[in-house]
């Protein structure tokens, strides 16, 4: 298969990709300032009944395990906080838009994509709680969206995505295969959407630099947390085409960034953390099942 020309230009010509859902734009702007008032968040979410309904279904699912039934967005904000609910709403808004545009023949790839994304998000959140709890919700959202460039390739050209996977499985490096076939990496492709959909700078940095956090001019910590979660998920069977066969944390630039910023990380029980991966994967399955089921 020949290179598709400039894939970035192809992406920019897809109207529905370049026109973000209004609710996502408004909420992303609130996430950027991190001081969203709960009433403002509620007003925006309630303008999109389908998104609001999925949020309520998710917060009432076993994924959150709340003891009290949540019947309104305002109530969800009281129990979970503005940042958490805003993050959920952004994820649900993007998920809903992408699912509406899904191709039936891409069902298997999309299932693996969302599985990897959900697992990465939950592992990143768990890792953040170990080292910097204030980042937990932020890296959850970033983890869910980090590979959105791959989702664009699946949606825009399933044939090219299948060829990429074939090349990577044959031993070609992921970025080399992407540049040869698409003329850009999935991070660069994802960054186009991140800009157009007004992702907060921290999340955009993760989308653009999660494979190389040390190259990020800002938000290296967030990118590093997501990168470690990403690698662990690839290694534990929840991957989406990167072809990771082994992982030695001490050799990973992302891990070294985290150790330098959080020296106590060297005392973390990695074995115990990875033993909990199965629980995180179970939570990811619960979350995805809730999102894809009928409201």
Query: Which regions contain 5 or more consecutive residues with pLDDT less than 50?
Result: none
Topology pattern, helix = H, strand = E: HHHHHHHHHHHHHHHHHH
Distance between the termini: 41 Å
Percent of residues in helices: 55-70%
Rg of Cα set: 18 Å
What does this 3D model show about the protein?
It is a single chain. The protein is globular, with a radius of gyration of 18 Å. By secondary structure, it is mainly α. It has a single domain, classed as Hypothetical protein af1432. The longest helix is centred in the middle third of the chain and has 25 residues, at 107-131. Helix 15 packs across helix 16. It has 18 helices and no strands.
Short structural description:
This protein is 68% helix and 0% strand. It has 295 residues and is an all-alpha fold. The protein has a single domain (7-292), classed as Orthogonal Bundle (Hypothetical protein af1432).
Topology at a glance:
Blueprint: H1 7-12, H2 15-18, H3 22-33, H4 38-45, H5 49-59, H6 73-80, H7 82-100, H8 107-131, H9 136-145, H10 148-156, H11 158-169, H12 174-182, H13 186-196, H14 201-209, H15 220-235, H16 253-261, H17 270-275, H18 277-292
Helix pairs in contact: 3-7, 4-6, 5-7, 6-7, 7-9, 8-9, 8-15, 8-18, 9-14, 9-15, 10-11, 10-13, 11-12, 13-14, 14-15, 15-16
Tag the structure with descriptive keywords:
68% helix, mainly alpha, single chain, 295 residues, 18 helices, Hypothetical protein af1432
């Amino acid at each position: 298969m020949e290179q598709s020309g400039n894939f970035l230009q192809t992406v920019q010509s897809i109207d529905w990709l370049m026109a973000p859902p209004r609710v996502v734009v408004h909420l992303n702007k609130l996430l950027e300032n991190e001081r969203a008032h709960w009433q403002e968040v509620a007003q925006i979410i309630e303008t999109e009944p389908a998104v609001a309904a999925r949020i309520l279904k998710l917060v009432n699912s076993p994924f959150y395990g709340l003891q009290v039934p949540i019947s309104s967005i305002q109530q969800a904000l009281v129990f979970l906080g503005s940042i958490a609910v805003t993050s959920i709403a952004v994820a649900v808004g993007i998920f809903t838009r992408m699912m509406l545009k899904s191709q039936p023949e891409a069902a298997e790839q999309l299932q693996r994509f969302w599985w990897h994304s959900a697992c990465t998000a939950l592992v990143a959140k768990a890792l953040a709680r170990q080292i910097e709890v204030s980042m937990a919700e932020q890296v959850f959202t970033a983890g869910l969206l980090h590979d959105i460039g791959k989702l664009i390739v699946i949606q825009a050209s399933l044939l090219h995505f299948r060829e990429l996977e074939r090349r990577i499985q044959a031993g070609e490096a992921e970025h080399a295969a992407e540049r040869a076939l698409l003329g850009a990496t999935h991070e660069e492709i994802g960054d186009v959407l991140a800009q157009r959909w007004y992702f907060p700078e921290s999340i955009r940095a993760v989308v653009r630099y999660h494979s190389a956090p040390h190259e990020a001019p800002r938000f290296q910590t967030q990118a590093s947390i997501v990168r470690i979660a990403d690698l662990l998920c690839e290694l534990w069977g929840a991957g989406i085409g990167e072809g990771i066969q082994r992982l030695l944390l001490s050799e990973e630039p992302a891990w070294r960034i985290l150790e330098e910023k959080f020296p106590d990380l060297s005392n973390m029980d990695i074995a115990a953390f990875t033993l909990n991966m199965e629980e995180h994967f179970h939570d990811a399955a619960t979350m995805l099942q809730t999102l894809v089921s009928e409201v």
